[in-house]
Amino acid sequence: MGKGSVKAGGGSGLRREGRKEPLRRSMEEVLARYVSQKVSKTRWRPLPPAALQPPEVFATGSWDNEENKVSIWSVGDLGSLSSNGEYNAEPHLLCDIQHSGDVMDMQFLDQERIVAASSTGSVTVFRHHQNNQTLSVSQKWENAHFYDPSHGNAPCTGIVCNSPEIFTVGEDGRINVFTADRKEAVRTVDNADSSTLHAVTRLRTTEILTVNSIGQLKIWDFRQQGNEPSQIFSLTGERIPLHCVDRHPSQQHIVATGSQDGMLSIWDVRQGDIPVSLLNAHEAELWEVHFHPSNPDHLFTCSEDGTLWHWDASADVSERKSYLHTGGRSTTFLPQSQSVISAWLRNDPTREITNLISNPTLSVNSLDVLGSCLVYGTDAESIYVKKNFFA
């Protein structure tokens, strides 16, 4: 996507690690499909509760094309034999629909609905009709983000869904809260930030966390009526834009961010206002960061430099055993990913890094991981699916 990078500022009291080349490269074959559109976003459709099968359906959004689209794909027939005896390994298109403007972000609201953020400032809810494999618009907020009447609409840069709520942020520094059944916003914070908001994630039930173009994280508690953040965190030194954020799925105080200079930062929002550690990672903008949803000692990042990295911190957990946690009157064995001290917060952590792309070329704009399956999309107008790469 966009080009350019800047140098990282220093920071006292931080655990900072130098740039590392990945320790090993993944040699497994990646299933690819050329889609004739630059792919800005890839997202797995969530699995139903207690589902045993791997994910099969994912959505993509495009950018910088004459006509952008939201598309639904399936990899359900991977490994099946076609009539001529060859394996049909390509993701296949189920349906698509035109999208006005670049797809800036995309999240599934539930198994049937997906929300897309547009560079035009609009936010659209699409419904996937699985009986006849079509997409339709079920709700659209046309001017969700705008500068002012004289300067027109502002791109909507990020969304996060917690059904029925949809939180959106934009270049206008505005935060909106929508629900899919209402035409008007449930709540709007007009001047949430004086700089561009780049991404948003849900922290707790009533809290969201935003990152902006001057290296700040802000926590917003929607139980409060005011328009001020409840906490502010920042990278020290130069104000490096933060492009992405993700929250640890089981330890909600742990947050990962990616910045314009390729730096991966780990934060503990319970303590201090600077990151716990800065990890020199990619050579250019870090576009997305995702904890594995069920194995969060594993983390994934992708970048403008054409690389996609798998970070494995589980080796830092002693003998990979469960930890004994005593709270109140109950004693519970927690899996390693929920151990009292996360692998991401340990001193002198051991992290194994795998480069999942052997020959980096154009930007890897987006990734998503679910179960043992990874999907990612690039400026090379291709989508890639890797199944069973992760146990």
Brief digest:
This protein has 391 residues and is mainly β. Helix content is 0%, strand content 47%.
Description of the structure:
It contains no helices and 34 strands. It is globular and about 50 Å long. It has a single domain (28-387), classed as Methylamine Dehydrogenase, Chain H (7 Propeller). Residues 3-15, 20-27, 78-82 and 317-339 have low confidence and may be disordered. The protein is mostly beta strands and 391 residues long. The chain is 0% helix and 47% strand. Residues 1-13 have a biased composition (Gly residues). WD repeats lie at residues 235-277, 279-321. Residues 14-26 have a biased composition (Basic and acidic residues). It is found in: Nucleus. InterPro entries: WD40/YVTN_repeat-like_dom_sf, WD40_repeat_CS, WD40_repeat_dom_sf, WD40_rpt.
